[in-house]
Amino acid sequence: EWESFTGLTITQPLWRGFGITANTAEIRIAKSNLKLADLEWQAKAVQVVAEVTKRYYDVVFARENMKVQRDGIGLAEKLMDDTTKRNKEGVAATNDVLVAEAGVYSRKEEALAAEMQYIERQNALQMLYKRADDVIAKGSRVEPVDKLMTSVPETNRGSLLGTAMTKRVEIQQAEEAVGLRGAQVQLAKNQSRPKLDLVASGGYHGLSGSLGSTYDRGVIDGQGPEWTVGMQFSVPLNFDHSRAGKRLAETQETQAHVQREKVRLQIALEVDTALGRLRTDQQRVTATIKSREAAAQSADGELKRLREGVTTSYQVLQLQKEYSQTRSRELAALVDMNKDLVDLYLTTGTLLEKYGILIQSDAKGIKSRLATPVVTGPVKEPVRVKETVAPKTKSTSESLPVEGDAPPKKRGFLGRMFGKN
User: Fold this and answer.
1) Which of the listed residues 119, 256, 310, 311 has the most CB atoms within 10 Å of its CB?
2) DSSP letters along 363-388, please?
């Protein structure tokens, strides 16, 4: 004789595992982890854009500093020619000619160092976006074509902080982490409960001389019906371990709330620091401009005194050197002010927006990607470069560029480079 049973058993949790929230907690946790990973990618993308921009400004400084050093050579050579002429006329001593000649070679040494710095900073910039094959095949250099901003827009601390608290990726990460820990607490609380289930079962028994016919007798003929309803209760032996997991999850949730407040505090302080540094460097730019003007007047006055025979070539060279140094300090202050503006955009979470770069996320959960926006009006993009195969590049301007020219019609260097992805 063969016996079979055909039926259905239904188990409905009444305590542990009860409800949609408990059964979908792991799905919510997985989605939060995915979003956190995506936000981390976005944060690193913003950091790379900021680093590219700052290195770009380093290249701008090195290029303009080369021009300053070349102008210094011109001043020293003119002084040497004047001194040589005066020496032939018997007005200047031979030692003054030697001092002027030494000054020329000293300026040339400084110019060579500036050119080397230009190459090094170009390479540092290209490390962030160039491919090795491109450098090996072409050996190209980059030449900045955009202009440094000599003035910055008006800033309001309150509005900047409000923008930072809504747009910074770190804030979104902290909020998502709080939600993740909350879902983990719900899951841990549910798993720490004893198990109480409602169990209902129903079906038919079949008895026959062959295995196949037992199902016919049981299901079709209804030979032996059986229906049961009951409760099933169980407590695991490691119940304390489950409760410890719940306490751990609750502690981690508390830590997530504390970390969120820490991130908010850190962002507020970063905005204050960037804003303070920007205002300080604005004052530096003004001070260096005054210093350069005074140094230029002092050098010109000392040159006139030399022609009158009341000073020496050494004194003129020292004042000309001081004039070149003040020009370099002015450039450094101006570049630092532009970098400060980048830091301010970075700390307020508006850096990509300022440069016309968008991050698009697929609604189905595919990783975010950088995309080129559709621009309906002119966008000021302060980072663009032109590539050339020449080993050296010369400055294309005789003075520092001034903001206010017509904005570029095409996307900038950052928009073109990151938009490819």
Assistant:
1) 256
2) TTSPPPEEE----SS-------EEEE
